[in-house]
Amino acid sequence: MLRTKVLVVPAMLAAGLAIGLGVNSAPSHPADAAASAPNNPAPVFPKNESGQTYGSIANVTSVSQYPDLVLVQDTAGHDGYVLATQLNGPTPSTPQQAIAMNPTGPRTIPVYASNGKTVIGKFVVGGGTTTAPVSKSNPSG
User: Fold this and answer.
1) Average pLDDT over residues 128-139
2) Quick one: which of 62, 15, 14 has its CA closest to 36?
3) What is the rounded CA–CA span in Å between residue 42 and residue 55?
4) C-alpha dist (Å) from residue 95 to 62, 91, 102
5) Nearest-CA neighbor of 114 among 44, 42, 52?
6) Is 134 exposed, middle or buried (0-12, 13-18, 19+ CB in 10 A)?
7) Sorting pLDDT into bands at 50, 70 and 90, what band is 129?
8) Measuring CA to CA, which residue among 89, 86, 44, 35 is closest to residue 67?
9) What is the DSSP string of 115-135?
């Protein structure tokens, strides 16, 4: 019986160290933790002639996984792509910067063909309303 107790304590200690090391090596941001999890691999996007990735963000778990060109519907209802950098805008580094960067209203950015060069429409960011696309197989949504 003494041997069992001696073996259990080192096993518990090893498990505690393993858990502790796992916590210390975890990503610092929850979105990055989801993105790095083995069950959430980063999506693979096609590339255009300029080497830009493009596609939908439907299966993306972190902003760091966004393609260069994000699939959207323009104001006329046509599919196209916006630059992820224009969609998200710059990231503020201080609360004061965030307040200064807070838009006073919606802004319009260009919508491109998948080549990332040909402007085919416009997309409104920050309009306060969203519209879910209607499924072609189920017109009622």
Assistant:
1) 51
2) 62
3) 13
4) 22, 11, 11
5) 52
6) exposed
7) low
8) 44
9) TSSSEEEEEEES-S---PPPP
Q: Concatenated DSSP letters for 56-119? A: --TT--SGGG--SEEEEE-TTS-EEEEEHHHHH-PPPSSHHHHHHH--SS-EEEEEE-TTSSSE
The string of pLDDT tens digits covering residues 56-115 is 999 999 888 999 999 999 999 999 999 999 988 778 899 998 888 776 778 899 999 999
End-to-end Cα distance, the chain: 66
Bridge partners of 80? 72
